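Predict the 3D structure for this chain.
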Amino acid sequence: MKKEEKRYPDEKVRRLTAYGLLAAIVTVLTLFVSVPLPISSEAAYLNAGDAAVYASAYVLGPVGGAVVSAAGSALADVLHGGMIYVPATFVIKGLMALVCGLLLKRLRGAAPFIAGIIMPAGYFAYECLLYGSAAALAGVWGNLVQYAFGSAAGLLIFSALKRAGVVMFGKGRLSRE
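Done. Predicted structure below.
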């Protein structure tokens, strides 16, 4: 019994560490692995953050991936100076990871492409509220490019994680099969 008691806190610490690490990876990849997009009049940029969103869903499952992705992506908006987008990003990226995680076991490679469509649709809806539909339409192209890039990168990440032996939905820890 004492062995079980000792192991439980270690598991909790391990899970919390995985959540924090993955949230930080989402933030860093969104901020620093990015390229500005010249196809939009606004400050749109192509970034690798969505790949980390999908990786979080793969490793932590739907709910854990949603928590990590929402927090990490929203923090990236704060640090990038896009405070007006923080609420939308929190919801949109969280939903992307949640849906991806829910679809992963059944649809594997299609999951990021299906879940990713939430991003351009969500930002379009949010920008319609902020700026009106005509102005929101101008941002759709940049979001569609980010959607395609992020979904394809997510698919590559799934393959790399599987080859590395990382178990899908590893219950919050980076486990090996």
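DSSP finds seven helices and two strands in the chain.
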